[in-house]
Specification:
The protein is mostly helical. The chain has 17 helices and five strands. It has helices spanning 19-22, 36-64, 66-86, 103-110, 114-119, 134-139, 172-235, 264-267, 278-298, 300-309, 312-317, 322-351, 360-384, 388-405, 417-424, 427-439, 445-475, and strands at 94-99, 120-126, 145-149, 163-168, 268-271.
Length: 480
């Protein structure tokens, strides 16, 4: 019979000691062994069963880890849907304000152009403003472009000669779209003028043909008059009636056509980023992204280390409030992030030639508030995570949408409303607005108070939530 205690007696046809119990390898069997094939087959069967058991164990652990399972199944579909709609560089419509003494007349004239109806949103018409106010309107981001309607000496002048266009270069894709729209508008005006000129030429040709026919008839009448006059002189009869000269015979005036300007640089004046450099638009947002990386990803690991090393219970018995513990945890990261902000901003200005024309104190205040937001969120992530891996996963889930939905890469105006609202609840969206406004447009607090107020509210909410979660963890002895 098989070896006593053999786990697989059906595989022991002989009465030899069972290798399943003793773990004898094939190398330990001598060449004269009676059953080497049976032993190798038994060991191979054990390996296959062990691998199958290991796979089943991993599936069971994955099923119990719902967070990882959601990242593997739900997250890819969610990212595909959201980012698929958000990944759009084209701006469909450009908002404009028309100013100048001829603003009303120009607005009425623009209604007749197909390009203006399809691609332009006229927000306001203000004849009291002029070209000096265009920069202020764009600095406050009241519109994407400002059209200054100027009076021209020639009422039949081309549309491009009767208006000046200013656009905001700090919104890169919107500015490029605006340039294209106004070039198309000038081209449509040129086509209409060419069509009118062609109609005038055709009318002149028709008048010339009619005049030629009338002249031929008048010449025949003159010839008959001359013959009749000679006969009258010869016979002494009455004088014949002289032919009537045709009226309205004149050379028609042909229209004068001047080639319109279709060069975007001549049609449009780009403010705040004249060359439409990508680096000028990206670097202010990248400053916020670096602060976000340090605040959310690095800080989120801090409290998890306390839990993994077992020192969270020691924090619970210390005579400190949860807010004091949070401040103590984030202070090193806060100071490090401030240093990184100063270094990155200085390098951006030095390497890429990005102007810093605004207020340094306003930029610093916005950066500090933004840091409090991301540091509070980082502490909140670490307080709800059980280990470092979960903290990193949640931090990545927080950082990735900031890159794609904050307007840093894709313009918010080109996103559908169902996706755009996500960008409005992300802190990087509002810090990017402040950074670009201060560095490129010299915007002040009067035009940037809204994003600063939103960041302040986010900081209060983030720190309030992280403090509440920290208090729960400390009062429950570091319970997860």
């Amino acid at each position: 019979m098989a070896w006593p205690g053999c786990s697989r007696p059906s595989l022991c046809p002989c009465r030899s000691p069972c290798p399943c119990i003793h773990g004898i390898s094939a190398a330990a069997i001598s060449p004269n062994d009676e059953h080497p094939v049976w032993l190798i087959s038994s060991v191979g069967e054990i390996g296959r069963w062990a691998m199958r058991a290991l796979v089943v164990k991993e599936f069971r652990e994955l099923a119990r880890d719902r967070r990882t399972l959601a990242m593997l199944v739900v997250l890819p579909v969610l990212l595909l849907v959201i980012f698929g709609y958000a990944a759009n560089f084209s701006v469909d419509r450009v908002s404009v304000i028309i100013v100048g003494s001829e603003a009303e007349e120009l607005a009425d004239e623009l209604d007749g152009y197909d390009v203006a109806g399809d691609d332009l949103d006229i927000l306001r018409i203000d004849p009291a403003l002029d070209a000096a106010d265009a920069e202020v309107l764009l600095r406050d981001q009241e519109a994407d472009a400002v059209i200054v309607a100027e009076s021209a000496d020639d009422v039949d002048a081309a549309l491009s000669d009767r208006m000046r266009v200013f656009i905001d270069g700090s919104s890169l894709f919107t500015a490029q779209a605006a340039q294209g729209v106004f070039v198309q508008l000038a081209a449509e005006d040129a086509q209409d003028r060419i069509a009118d000129a062609q109609a005038s030429v055709d009318e002149a040709l028709a008048d010339a043909e009619q005049a030629e026919a009338e002249l031929e008839a008048f010449g025949e009448e003159l010839a008959e008059f001359q013959t009749a006059l000679q006969q009258t002189l010869a016979t002494g009869g009455p004088m014949p009636a002289a032919p009537t000269q045709p009226e309205g015979l004149s050379i028609p005036d042909l229209p004068s056509i001047t080639a319109p300007t279709l060069d975007p640089d001549e049609l449009v004046t780009v403010l705040f980023n004249p060359d439409l450099k990508t680096s000028w638009v990206m670097v202010p947002g990248l400053i916020g992204l670096i602060l976000l990386f340090i605040g959310a990803l690095i800080t989120s690991i801090g409290l998890v280390r306390e839990r993994e090393t077992g020192t969270l219970e020691q924090l619970a018995v210390m005579p400190l409030r949860p807010s004091a513990i949070i401040i103590g945890k984030i202070t090193p990261y806060f100071l490090l992030a401030l240093i990184d902000m100063a270094v990155v901003t200085a390098l951006g200005v030095w390497l890429f030639g990005i102007p810093f024309v605004g207020s340094l104190w306003l930029f610093s205040v916005a950066a500090i508030v933004f840091l409090f937001v991301v540091l509070g969120i980082g502490v909140l992530i670490s307080s709800v995570s059980q280990n470092t891996g979960q903290a990193i996963q949640m931090a990545i889930l927080f950082v990735v949408p900031q890159v794609l939905l904050s307007g840093l890469i894709f313009p918010l105006d080109s996103m559908p409303l169902g996706v755009r609202w996500i960008g409005y609840v992300l802190p990087l969206t509002w810090f990017r607005e402040i950074a670009q406004g201060v560095m490129l447009r010299d915007a002040g607090l009067d035009s940037l108070w809204l994003p600063l107020a939103i960041l302040t509210v986010m900081a209060v909410v983030a720190f309030g939530a992280s403090t509440a979660r920290m208090r729960f963890s400390l009062t429950h002895g570091g319970a997860r």
